[in-house]
Design brief:
- The protein is of the alpha/beta class.
- It folds into two domains: 40-52 and 130-258, Rossmann fold, CATH 3.40.50.1000; 55-128, Orthogonal Bundle (DNA polymerase, domain 1), CATH 1.10.150.240.
- Helix content is 55%, strand content 10%.
- It is built from eleven helices and six strands.
Length: 262
């Protein structure tokens, strides 16, 4: 078969189809976003990392293992979430603190790093020292002032969420601290997202979920939440056949999306 001939013959047709497809996709995305903006959002549930900045944990990894910190952080983070999914699928729940420690031990071993007890404790305790991203406090105040109810909905343990709130001076900002410990299933299990519906006593269509990770966007959309992807890291979108209702890189942009007319 003459591949060059077929490619040349179909080029104009292909370009036309591709352009039409892109335009249709953009139109659908705009329609979805506009629909979400019209929806009466009464409450927002946040993933922990939307609010709490995890970068100090990774900086500490580099300090303790110079030149290897990035590799350790990447392996640790990947295994951390793989363990949550495996435990949920296998119905063998263990809290996120334990899962995080198990993932750290595995990641260090896989990289042949000497993770002694002191380094292990320092890295784990870094999760109890997390503080809010700089744009969080004022934006949460503005959202609350507009009448929107707020909650954490996270794989984090209640202790981890409480520590982040105390470190950041966010006492009273959240109506609910919803940890998957309460249902013994990690996100993206539907039972985890259902916690927000039960806590707020609102229809899921009126609860906006703000995700930090692309897979969490998918889980929330599958559940039926209008969903914003807070893509602070500029990560590529996951290929999971869902599109968030809005994508942004900071909390003020989220506030503008949620309360355009308030």
């Amino acid at each position: 078969m003459n591949w060059k001939w077929e490619t040349t013959l179909d080029r104009r047709k292909f370009i036309g189809i591709a352009a039409g497809s892109i335009a249709a996709t953009l139109e659908r995305s705009a329609s979805v976003a506009e629909s979400a903006r019209r929806s009466p959002i009464g409450a927002i549930a946040f993933d922990a990392f939307v609010i709490l900045d995890p970068r100090p944990v990774f900086a500490l990894a580099e300090k303790l293992f110079p030149g290897k910190g990035t590799d350790l952080s990447n392996a640790w983070r990947a295994r951390q979430f793989e363990y949550t999914w495996l435990r949920t699928a296998g119905e063998r729940y263990d809290g996120f603190w334990q899962v995080t420690e198990d993932a750290l031990v595995f990641a260090a071993r896989s990289l042949k790093l000497d993770l002694d007890a002191q380094r292990r404790e320092r890295l784990m305790n870094a999760f109890l020292r997390l503080k809010a991203w700089p744009d969080v406090p004022e934006t949460l105040k503005a959202l609350k002032a507009s009448g929107i109810r707020l909650a954490f909905l996270s794989n984090f343990s209640h202790r981890m969420l409480e520590a982040g709130i105390q470190n950041s001076g966010l006492n009273g900002a959240f109506e609910h601290l919803l940890s998957t410990d309460a249902v013994k299933q990690f996100k993206p299990a539907p039972r985890a997202y259902q916690m927000a519906v039960d806590a707020f006593r609102l229809p899921k269509e009126e609860i906006l979920f703000v995700a930090f990770a692309g897979w969490d966007v998918a889980g929330a959309k599958w559940f039926g939440f209008p969903t914003v992807w807070m893509n602070r890291a500029g990560a590529p979108a996951e290929e999971l056949s869902v599109v968030p209702d809005f994508v942004c890189k900071d909390l003020p942009s989220l506030a503008g999306f949620v309360t355009p007319d308030r």
